[in-house]
Amino acid sequence: MTLFSLLAYAAAAFAAAASPGPSMLAVITTGISRGAAAGIAVGVGIGLGDLVLVALALMGLAAVAHTVEWVFLALKYAGAAYLVWLGIRMWRSAPEFKAERPRSKASKSIALGAAIGLGNPKAILFHASIMPLILDVQSLTLLDGAVVLAVVFCINVSIMSFYSLAAGRSARWFGTPGRIRWMNRFAGGAMIGTGALIASG
After folding, report:
1. What is the tally of structural domains in the chain?
2. What is the structure's pLDDT at 106?
3. Which of 193, 183, 155, 199 is nearest to 25 (CA)?
4. Is-contact 113 46, C-beta < 8 A?
5. Mean pLDDT throughout 103-112?
6. How confident is the model over 22-43, as a mean pLDDT?
7. Which residues form the domain of 170?
Protein backbone atom coordinates (compact mmCIF):
# COMPACT_ATOMS: atom_id res chain seq x y z
CA MET A 1 0.00 0.00 0.00
CA THR A 2 1.44 3.36 -1.02
CA LEU A 3 1.13 6.57 0.95
CA PHE A 4 -0.79 8.12 -1.96
CA SER A 5 -3.41 5.34 -2.00
CA LEU A 6 -3.80 5.58 1.78
CA LEU A 7 -4.30 9.35 1.59
CA ALA A 8 -6.79 8.93 -1.25
CA TYR A 9 -8.79 6.41 0.76
CA ALA A 10 -8.60 8.65 3.84
CA ALA A 11 -9.96 11.56 1.79
CA ALA A 12 -12.87 9.43 0.60
CA ALA A 13 -13.58 8.25 4.15
CA PHE A 14 -13.38 11.85 5.42
CA ALA A 15 -15.88 13.06 2.83
CA ALA A 16 -18.28 10.24 3.69
CA ALA A 17 -18.01 10.80 7.46
CA ALA A 18 -18.37 14.59 7.21
CA SER A 19 -21.43 14.50 4.96
CA PRO A 20 -24.85 15.07 6.59
CA GLY A 21 -26.59 11.91 7.69
CA PRO A 22 -28.07 10.03 10.65
CA SER A 23 -24.69 9.69 12.40
CA MET A 24 -24.02 13.42 12.28
CA LEU A 25 -27.56 14.24 13.46
CA ALA A 26 -27.32 11.76 16.34
CA VAL A 27 -24.04 13.28 17.53
CA ILE A 28 -25.29 16.87 17.25
CA THR A 29 -28.59 16.23 19.05
CA THR A 30 -26.78 14.29 21.78
CA GLY A 31 -24.24 17.10 22.15
CA ILE A 32 -27.01 19.69 22.52
CA SER A 33 -29.22 17.73 24.90
CA ARG A 34 -26.74 15.71 26.99
CA GLY A 35 -23.45 17.56 26.62
CA ALA A 36 -20.37 17.37 24.43
CA ALA A 37 -18.88 14.40 26.31
CA ALA A 38 -21.93 12.26 25.61
CA GLY A 39 -21.87 13.33 21.97
CA ILE A 40 -18.19 12.41 21.69
CA ALA A 41 -18.96 9.00 23.23
CA VAL A 42 -21.64 8.47 20.57
CA GLY A 43 -19.00 9.42 17.98
CA VAL A 44 -16.60 6.83 19.40
CA GLY A 45 -19.34 4.21 19.10
CA ILE A 46 -19.99 5.23 15.50
CA GLY A 47 -16.26 4.90 14.81
CA LEU A 48 -16.21 1.42 16.35
CA GLY A 49 -19.22 0.35 14.30
CA ASP A 50 -17.63 1.62 11.11
CA LEU A 51 -14.43 -0.19 12.10
CA VAL A 52 -16.28 -3.51 11.97
CA LEU A 53 -17.72 -2.71 8.54
CA VAL A 54 -14.30 -1.69 7.16
CA ALA A 55 -12.77 -4.90 8.54
CA LEU A 56 -15.46 -6.97 6.82
CA ALA A 57 -14.83 -5.12 3.56
CA LEU A 58 -11.05 -5.64 3.90
CA MET A 59 -11.56 -9.38 4.40
CA GLY A 60 -13.91 -9.57 1.43
CA LEU A 61 -16.80 -10.50 3.71
CA ALA A 62 -19.32 -7.95 2.47
CA ALA A 63 -21.36 -10.85 1.06
CA VAL A 64 -21.28 -12.59 4.45
CA ALA A 65 -22.52 -9.40 6.10
CA HIS A 66 -25.38 -9.40 3.60
CA THR A 67 -26.43 -12.92 4.60
CA VAL A 68 -26.73 -11.90 8.26
CA GLU A 69 -28.36 -8.60 7.43
CA TRP A 70 -30.97 -9.21 10.13
CA VAL A 71 -28.29 -8.60 12.79
CA PHE A 72 -27.50 -5.17 11.36
CA LEU A 73 -31.21 -4.42 10.99
CA ALA A 74 -31.83 -5.34 14.64
CA LEU A 75 -29.02 -3.03 15.74
CA LYS A 76 -30.35 -0.26 13.52
CA TYR A 77 -33.88 -0.47 14.92
CA ALA A 78 -32.60 -0.72 18.50
CA GLY A 79 -30.55 2.45 18.04
CA ALA A 80 -33.47 4.22 16.35
CA ALA A 81 -35.89 3.22 19.13
CA TYR A 82 -33.48 4.44 21.80
CA LEU A 83 -33.08 7.81 20.06
CA VAL A 84 -36.86 8.20 19.81
CA TRP A 85 -37.21 7.35 23.51
CA LEU A 86 -34.54 9.92 24.43
CA GLY A 87 -36.27 12.46 22.20
CA ILE A 88 -39.62 11.96 23.91
CA ARG A 89 -37.99 12.36 27.33
CA MET A 90 -36.22 15.53 26.18
CA TRP A 91 -39.42 16.99 24.69
CA ARG A 92 -41.36 16.37 27.92
CA SER A 93 -38.62 17.50 30.33
CA ALA A 94 -39.15 20.60 32.46
CA PRO A 95 -37.31 23.78 31.36
CA GLU A 96 -34.93 23.83 34.31
CA PHE A 97 -31.51 25.42 34.05
CA LYS A 98 -28.70 23.27 35.39
CA ALA A 99 -25.14 24.47 35.53
CA GLU A 100 -24.06 20.90 34.90
CA ARG A 101 -26.16 18.50 32.93
CA PRO A 102 -26.51 15.05 34.49
CA ARG A 103 -23.82 12.75 33.22
CA SER A 104 -24.95 9.67 31.38
CA LYS A 105 -22.93 6.50 31.27
CA ALA A 106 -20.38 6.62 28.49
CA SER A 107 -21.03 2.95 27.77
CA LYS A 108 -24.66 3.71 26.84
CA SER A 109 -23.62 6.49 24.49
CA ILE A 110 -20.93 4.32 22.89
CA ALA A 111 -23.43 1.47 22.47
CA LEU A 112 -25.89 3.85 20.85
CA GLY A 113 -23.22 5.08 18.44
CA ALA A 114 -22.12 1.53 17.62
CA ALA A 115 -25.72 0.53 16.87
CA ILE A 116 -26.07 3.52 14.54
CA GLY A 117 -22.72 2.79 12.87
CA LEU A 118 -23.37 -0.92 12.40
CA GLY A 119 -26.97 -0.34 11.39
CA ASN A 120 -26.00 1.69 8.33
CA PRO A 121 -26.08 -0.79 5.41
CA LYS A 122 -24.83 1.86 3.00
CA ALA A 123 -21.53 2.11 4.87
CA ILE A 124 -20.32 -1.39 4.07
CA LEU A 125 -21.41 -0.94 0.45
CA PHE A 126 -19.37 2.27 0.35
CA HIS A 127 -16.24 0.61 1.71
CA ALA A 128 -16.64 -2.57 -0.35
CA SER A 129 -17.13 -0.62 -3.58
CA ILE A 130 -14.56 2.15 -3.20
CA MET A 131 -11.83 0.12 -1.49
CA PRO A 132 -10.79 -1.93 -4.57
CA LEU A 133 -10.73 1.25 -6.68
CA ILE A 134 -8.15 2.93 -4.46
CA LEU A 135 -6.34 0.15 -2.59
CA ASP A 136 -4.75 -2.99 -3.97
CA VAL A 137 -6.69 -5.21 -1.58
CA GLN A 138 -4.99 -8.42 -2.72
CA SER A 139 -1.53 -7.17 -1.76
CA LEU A 140 -2.44 -5.58 1.57
CA THR A 141 -0.47 -6.89 4.53
CA LEU A 142 -1.83 -7.28 8.05
CA LEU A 143 -0.04 -4.06 8.99
CA ASP A 144 -1.60 -2.25 6.00
CA GLY A 145 -5.05 -3.39 7.13
CA ALA A 146 -4.39 -2.20 10.67
CA VAL A 147 -3.28 1.20 9.36
CA VAL A 148 -6.45 1.53 7.23
CA LEU A 149 -8.63 0.63 10.24
CA ALA A 150 -6.80 3.12 12.48
CA VAL A 151 -7.11 5.92 9.91
CA VAL A 152 -10.83 5.33 9.37
CA PHE A 153 -11.49 5.19 13.12
CA CYS A 154 -9.53 8.40 13.80
CA ILE A 155 -11.35 10.21 10.98
CA ASN A 156 -14.76 9.19 12.32
CA VAL A 157 -14.00 10.13 15.92
CA SER A 158 -12.36 13.45 14.96
CA ILE A 159 -15.26 14.59 12.79
CA MET A 160 -17.95 13.46 15.23
CA SER A 161 -16.08 15.10 18.13
CA PHE A 162 -15.98 18.38 16.20
CA TYR A 163 -19.74 18.25 15.63
CA SER A 164 -20.38 17.34 19.26
CA LEU A 165 -18.18 20.11 20.67
CA ALA A 166 -19.83 22.67 18.39
CA ALA A 167 -23.27 21.46 19.51
CA GLY A 168 -22.26 21.51 23.17
CA ARG A 169 -21.00 25.09 22.88
CA SER A 170 -24.21 26.26 21.23
CA ALA A 171 -26.25 24.74 24.05
CA ARG A 172 -24.64 27.16 26.54
CA TRP A 173 -26.58 30.02 24.95
CA PHE A 174 -29.81 28.55 26.37
CA GLY A 175 -29.80 30.06 29.86
CA THR A 176 -33.41 31.12 30.42
CA PRO A 177 -36.44 28.87 31.02
CA GLY A 178 -38.00 29.93 27.70
CA ARG A 179 -34.87 29.18 25.73
CA ILE A 180 -34.34 25.91 27.59
CA ARG A 181 -37.90 24.86 26.76
CA TRP A 182 -37.27 25.51 23.07
CA MET A 183 -33.91 23.75 23.24
CA ASN A 184 -35.56 20.71 24.83
CA ARG A 185 -38.22 20.63 22.15
CA PHE A 186 -35.76 21.21 19.32
CA ALA A 187 -33.33 18.56 20.56
CA GLY A 188 -36.15 16.15 21.40
CA GLY A 189 -37.79 16.62 18.01
CA ALA A 190 -34.44 16.25 16.26
CA MET A 191 -33.73 13.02 18.15
CA ILE A 192 -37.15 11.61 17.26
CA GLY A 193 -36.62 12.65 13.64
CA THR A 194 -33.14 11.12 13.59
CA GLY A 195 -34.49 7.86 15.00
CA ALA A 196 -37.19 7.80 12.34
CA LEU A 197 -34.60 8.57 9.65
CA ILE A 198 -32.36 5.72 10.81
CA ALA A 199 -35.29 3.29 10.95
CA SER A 200 -36.48 4.19 7.45
CA GLY A 201 -33.01 4.24 5.86
Report:
1. 1
2. 83
3. 193
4. yes
5. 79
6. 84
7. 3-14+21-200
